[in-house]
Amino acid sequence: MTFEEFTTKFATEQQCRDYLYKLRWPRGFMCPKCQNEKSWQIGDSLYECSSCGHQASVIAGTIFQDTRKPLKTWFTAMWWVTTQKNGASAKGLQQVLGLKSYQTSWTWLHKIRKAMVMPNRSNLSGTIEVDEAYIGGEDPGGKQGRGSENKVLIAIAVEIIDNRKPGRIRMSIIPDASGESLKSFVTSNIKKGSTIITDGWPSYSFVETSGYQHMKLKKKDLTDDETMLPRVHLVVSLLKRWLLGTHQGAVSEKHLQAYLDEYVFRFNRRKSAARGLLFYRLLECAMNVKPITYDELVKRDDFNEP
């Protein structure tokens, strides 16, 4: 779908509502309370069950809930975000949509990033490299390794495809490099039975007893890191470059996970030739992600991010 096709397909509010209706009720209306399939439309996006009288909205319980802006503007924002190969900034979105409020574009971007985590997404499988890295601070490319100061520790998992290439990835902030923290990350993101490659850090001792095959690489010295886990280090290097280039590195710990989610979404779809398909995938997710307000995203006195 080209941009011209997009603007034709979603030229009106009704076209946008109709599409969201199909995403919410692909087989036709179904009351969330009594499962009745008949309803009366009593508003632009509100339907009343003919059996129990329960009212259900097309956008209730989604990132579009309580929006004061046209759905058409939301659709344009999501199209623009998914077609930006190198990521999107709030400033850029503000300019594209002609929004007066930077706060609005910032909030929208974070809501959209929230929708980038696919509900019930399949875990990584096969052979996976797993490691940790520190992100943030004044120098994103500075000190690495367990124990870096003023940085945020993240866990990274990278599938290996064709015996050498990086496939899908997962990233998550972790409180520390303990076995408990790493086990939570691994079991939440990697399918049991997979082979996990690590650098031999003792905290990964849980791998063998948690339903995985474990390949422990012997670490001779710190300069051997990139040779040992080349795909993880490639992904981390690209992430740091992306944060620095797209967001000027101005990402606080408080919101780092949202940016990691965006990067994972983009990296895992980097070879997609049909950019329009990403827009549709994002819309599907947006209909299954709980709404979040600006106040829930950030305190009023902490509003200073790109």
Quick summary:
The protein is 38% helix and 15% strand.
The largest sheet has its strands arranged as 6-5-4-7-8
Q: What does the radius of gyration come to?
A: 22 Å
Separation, N- and C-terminal Cα atoms = 29 Å
Q: Structural class of the helices, strands and pairings? A: alpha/beta
- CATH architecture classification of the domain at 127-251: 2-Layer Sandwich
Overall geometry comes to globular
How many strand segments?
8
The name of the CATH superfamily of the domain at 127-251 reads: Ribonuclease H-like superfamily/Ribonuclease H
Pattern of helices and strands = HHEEEHHHEEEHEEHHHHH
Summed up, the helix count is 11
For this structure, the CATH topology of the domain at 127-251 is Nucleotidyltransferase, domain 5
Give the overall average pLDDT.
Answer: 87
* Unreliable stretches covering 5 or more consecutive residues: 138-144, 300-306
The level 1 CATH classification of the domain at 127-251 is: Alpha Beta
Helix fraction, binned, reads 25-40%
Draw up the topology in text:
Blueprint: H1 3-9, H2 13-24, E1 39-41, E2 46-49, E3 55-57, H3 71-83, H4 90-97, H5 102-114, E4 127-135, E5 152-161, E6 165-173, H6 179-189, E7 195-198, E8 213-216, H7 225-228, H8 230-247, H9 253-267, H10 275-286, H11 294-297
Parallel strand pairs: 4-7, 7-8
Antiparallel strand pairs: 1-2, 2-3, 4-5, 5-6
Helix pairs in contact: 3-10, 4-5
Please name the defining characteristics of this protein.
306 residues; alpha/beta; Nucleotidyltransferase, domain 5; five-stranded mixed sheet; three-stranded antiparallel sheet; 8 strands; disordered C terminus
